[in-house]
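User: My instructor asked us to take a sequence, write out its structure as tokens, and then describe one feature of it. I'm not sure where to start. Here is the sequence I was given:
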Amino acid sequence: MTRLISALLLFALACASAAVARPNILIIVADDLGWADVGYHGSTIATPNIDRLCREGVELNRHYVSPVCTPTRIGLLTGRYWSRFGNTGPNNERCLPWETETLATALRSRGYDTCITGKWHLGSLPEWGPRQFGFTHSHGSLAGGVNPLNHFYKHGKYMKTWHRNDRLIEEEGHATDLIAREAIRYIRMERDGPFFVYVPFTAVHTPFLEEKRYLEAVKHIPDDRRFFAACLVHLDEKIGEIIKAVDDSGQRDNTLILFFSDNGGQNPSSDDSRRYPDTKPTSKFKGMNTPLRGWKVQTYEGGMRVPAFVNWPGTLKPGRSDALLSVTDWMPTLCALTGFKPTANLKWDGRNIWPMIRDPSKANRDRTLYCKGPGGRTRMVINDGWKLIEIKNGERFELYHLDDDPNEERDLFHSEPDEVDKMKRILARERKADDDARPDPKRKNPSPV
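Assistant: Let's start with the prediction itself. The structure tokens for your sequence are:
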């Protein structure tokens, strides 16, 4: 009897341990990658490494982000909508209050080594860098996209932005290569515990400067999009090298890999390459979002619904989830997966979506997603298959039934008054929660690293 009880206790402990297993976590974020740019969505640009990871993982067919970069990064690292922090667009000022519990601080408390290599864009001065918000190691651009060769951000006070551990540095090499190299170096390091490596590439954001071999690989692409295509081929190659480093370390089966784009592809009429020092435009056409409507910056599907998947061999079976998912879901999901329990109410907008990742057949039609777009010019909510877009603080509204019209071709605002009223109430409820965590720009960091 004693042996039986001991065996049952050991089994219970094993189950508890499995419930809070600590996998390595690798999050790879592309910049300005459109819905139609990946091979698995029919692109003529070869992305074999991205495609293989998606094919062997769980494709997230309805994964929503902000239509611009900084807000998406806030959502990922806090589990909250960016507008709760008063943010709706690209921002070089400090975006988060000093004491914000981030995904990095949460995982660090669970014994993770935490690393970011790539684009931070949540505060573009060294004293606002990633190490102040939970990362033990940081590298890349404190600001946004950079000239990939000289690593300068746009003209102005934040132009010098390339750093390591929140200290500005000079480093030779192409930004895509350097970001990947740092990730590979960190993955290969010997350590006792698991790692969290966050790799927000600056590719495929403008400016585009690529070697001849990458341009040769996309000779079939029209001239006015060739440099973008070469940039994407380069990105895909480096993603493959990062995954190989995980494979070579013998940790592949214990590494969860998440991939997504920070927003949709950029409108071809917009190219700000000349705002970067010593930089000229090279591609008129960039990311493509077809058949989805709209572009980066817009709250139509093309601006917010992005290529995404999660891959974890031996734990996740290949499949596709059509559940309604948000970038804000990853903090609560990964915290639950790794056993982190908040000691205070973090007011997450996201949910633990792990049950839907494990079983992609699960649906969540009751889910509401909300977004305050750049400058507050638009707001949108999605609920029960419907999507309402408010334009210019209520000057105009549009209503779409995404179940029947995923490409937003038929505005039903005038023919569905009951749905409009319901969606307006949901939108009003979400708006009330905005701006409750704006950072105080005058407050000094109480615990600088």
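For the description part of your assignment, you could build on this observation: The chain has two domains: 23-358, 368-432. Try explaining in your own words what that tells you about the chain.
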